[in-house]
Amino acid sequence: MASACYKIWVQGRVQGVGFRYSTQAEASQLGVLGYARNLDDGSVEVLACGEPEKVDALIAWLKAGGPRSARVDRVLVEPHQPVEQPQRFTTG
């Protein structure tokens, strides 16, 4: 089974609006592993690993704006090769 892994930075009003937890729920529903964590600059960093079409679906969800309470202004996506594959999707 092929695997894709990306780091994604989401900018906008994405902290304090349940963004990480909504991302975790969406990723879990899709079967995507990784994490969503707040950064000091007010953005959220997401690591998404899994089957390419499922990772693409999570990225599309993020680009579409994520949860209704958020406002996504910009999404940056970069291929990533983690040292260890994540075993689940966490928030941190």
Helix/strand layout:
Blueprint: E1 4-13, H1 19-30, E2 33-38, E3 44-50, H2 52-63, E4 71-79, E5 89-91
Parallel strand pairs: 2-5
Antiparallel strand pairs: 1-3, 1-4, 2-3
Helix pairs in contact: 1-2
Overview of the structural elements:
By secondary structure, this protein is α+β, with helices and mostly antiparallel strands. The chain has one domain: Alpha-Beta Plaits (2-Layer Sandwich). It has helices spanning 19-30, 52-63, and strands at residues 4-13, 33-38, 44-50, 71-79, 89-91. A 5-stranded mixed β-sheet has the order 4-1-3-2-5, covered by helices on one side. The longest helix is centred in the first third of the chain and has 12 residues, at 19-30. The mean pLDDT is 95.
- Going by CATH, the architecture would be 2-Layer Sandwich
Q: What is the number of independent domains?
A: 1
Radius of gyration: 12 Å
Low-confidence stretches: none
Major sheet characteristics = 5 strands, mixed
Please report the number of helical segments: 2
CATH fold node name = Alpha-Beta Plaits
Secondary-structure-based class equals alpha+beta
Task: Quote the average pLDDT.
Answer: 95
